[in-house]
């Protein structure tokens, strides 16, 4: 495998290079191997390009803290392969990348499939809290809880090898890249933009998905004009792994029948380049056409031919006598490929985790048929599923001179990102006529004028704020600013060092109380929930 430049993504190509391109995007904590069961069938018709998220599966650990950043890196990767127009299927975070491309680069996306997707994944607080847990404890808590989030209980009990595979994938992820991906999901929200996704879209969801379930899927279908819903029985979050045959059939049918080919003169779509730079005119689907002599990051092969060794995995495809696993590159920790489910369609010889017990022999559960539901929901359902819109304090001070930009909205955004929605919502609920002007003042000036400045990053501002609160003995505010410091990226050890410094310059009694206050917050915020 060739070296991956920092502005691109680690990838692998399967299938005929002259076929239309189909890109598969992974979920947070997984690798491109989550699509192992789909590739043999899809590669018969398409040039299949899979990619790894930064720091996943041995990919370079160059964090990407936003979905637009990930989408741009994918565009740069596909540009290097000579791929202009493509179909796209993504799971969870991979699906978010797909919607970003469909919104900002509709000239590139011919068809879209969203698996375990949502226009907004949970709440920003949930994902920033996950980052706090990982920063304090590493990825072990996330690895242990992954099977519960990803699979149905029956599947997890019947397939212990796949459960172990899932745990190992998370364990081998770079923590900083995982935290950055959590931040990307925290800031992702396209509820107001669904109507501008104009490519044909399949929304596929496991019927038992407790993370992004049928309700979120129906919100997408109601909001995207040309979308239909596919509900996969007997599947949870990682439906491509749990019900591979049903998912493969749905993807094959969708991309075979819903491929948008605009005319050369007009796409009928207004390109919105505010996040991604504008690209070349739309072109017919094309596969990789790397320049002569250029090294490809992964082997390109038809499904029946074994792939050349890569730095990441074993060959994909039917096993041959004497086939051997390819060792990882020195110093690179990699996640294993998905173990074979007995009786499940896919790759008979897919490699298993070294030292991982084989799944028990016995009949596998046949994948049930996946009914496709029409997009019967109306626009009114999209608004209901999107969740309530928060009312924010308003007042006479909100209307300023037209020449001076009002900093209230920017301040409220940063205030929520730093302190959390729950804290800000409680403050807003407690606001009355007496305190309203003060709440607007601190939102507009403290958060909108100071915390939004570029001169210091948020970690540094948290260090300064903690010190100032200890010096002023404002211990009530120290409580929620300790929580904010964790969300802004300070580790518990770094907060300890800040408080030790305050003991010298602000007094031992003040630091003593600060250690008690901050310690209680840190224990509460960094203890994984069982």
From TrEMBL:
Residues 437-518 form the Carboxymuconolactone decarboxylase-like domain. Residues 23-249 form the AB hydrolase-1 domain. InterPro entries: 4CMD/NDH-1_regulator, AB_hydrolase_1, AB_hydrolase_fold, AhpD-like, CMD-like, Decarb_PcaC. Residues 288-331, 346-355, 372-405 have a biased composition (Low complexity). Residues 278-287, 356-371 have a biased composition (Pro residues). SUPFAM superfamilies: AhpD-like, alpha/beta-Hydrolases. NCBIfam families: decarb_PcaC (TIGR02425). This is 3-oxoadipate enol-lactonase. Residues 270-331, 346-408 are annotated as: Disordered.
């Amino acid at each position: 495998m060739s070296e991956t430049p920092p502005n691109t993504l680690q990838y692998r190509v399967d299938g005929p290079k002259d076929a239309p391109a189909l890109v598969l995007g992974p979920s947070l904590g997984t690798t491109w191997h989550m699509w192992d069961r789909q590739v043999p069938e899809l590669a018969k018709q398409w040039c299949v390009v899979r990619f790894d998220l930064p720091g996943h599966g041995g990919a370079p650990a160059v964090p990407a803290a936003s979905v637009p950043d990930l989408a741009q890196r994918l565009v740069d990767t596909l540009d290097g392969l000579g791929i202009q127009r493509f179909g796209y299927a993504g799971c969870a975070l991979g699906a978010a990348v797909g919607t970003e491309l469909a919104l900002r680069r509709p000239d590139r996306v011919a068809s879209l499939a969203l698996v375990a997707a949502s226009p907004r994944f949970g709440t920003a607080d949930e994902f920033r809290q996950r980052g706090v847990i990982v920063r304090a404890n590493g990825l072990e808590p996330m690895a242990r809880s992954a099977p519960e989030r990803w699979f149905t209980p029956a599947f997890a009990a019947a397939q212990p090898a796949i459960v172990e595979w899932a745990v190992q994938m998370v364990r081998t992820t770079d923590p900083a890249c995982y935290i950055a991906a959590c931040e990307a999901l925290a800031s992702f929200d396209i509820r107001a933009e669904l109507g501008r996704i104009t490519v044909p879209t399949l929304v596929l969801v496991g019927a038992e998905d407790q993370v992004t379930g049928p309700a979120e899927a129906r919100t997408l279908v109601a909001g995207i004009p040309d979308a239909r819903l596919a509900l996969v029985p007997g599947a949870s979050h990682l439906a491509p792994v749990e019900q591979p045959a049903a998912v493969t059939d749905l993807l094959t049918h969708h991309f075979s029948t819903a491929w948008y080919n605009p005319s050369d003169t007009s796409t009928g779509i207004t390109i919105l380049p505010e996040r991604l730079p504008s690209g070349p005119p739309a072109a017919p689907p094309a596969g990789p056409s790397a320049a002569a002599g250029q090294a490809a990051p992964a082997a390109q092969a038809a499904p029946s031919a074994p792939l050349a060794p890569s730095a990441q995995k074993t060959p994909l495809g039917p096993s041959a006598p004497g086939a051997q696993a390819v060792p990882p590159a020195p110093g690179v920790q990699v996640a294993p490929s998905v173990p074979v489910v007995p009786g499940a369609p896919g790759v008979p010889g897919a490699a298993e985790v070294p030292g991982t017990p084989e799944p028990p022999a016995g009949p596998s559960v046949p994948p049930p048929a996946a009914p496709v539901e029409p997009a019967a929901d109306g626009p009114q359902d999209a608004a209901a599923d999107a969740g309530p819109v928060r009312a924010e304090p308003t007042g006479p001070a909100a209307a300023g001179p037209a020449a001076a930009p009002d900093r209230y909205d920017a301040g409220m955004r940063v205030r929520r990102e730093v302190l959390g929605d729950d804290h800000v919502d409680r403050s807003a609920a407690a606001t009355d006529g007496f305190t309203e002007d003060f709440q607007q003042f601190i939102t507009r000036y403290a958060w909108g004028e100071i915390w939004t400045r570029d001169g210091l990053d948020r970690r540094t501002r948290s260090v300064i704020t903690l010190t100032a609160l200890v010096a002023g003995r404002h211990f009530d505010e120290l409580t929620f600013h300790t929580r904010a410091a964790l969300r802004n990226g300070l580790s518990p050890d770094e907060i300890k060092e800040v408080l030790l410094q305050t003991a010298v310059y602000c007094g031992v009694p003040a630091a003593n109380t600060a250690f008690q206050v901050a310690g209680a917050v840190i224990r509460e915020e960094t203890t994984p929930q069982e």
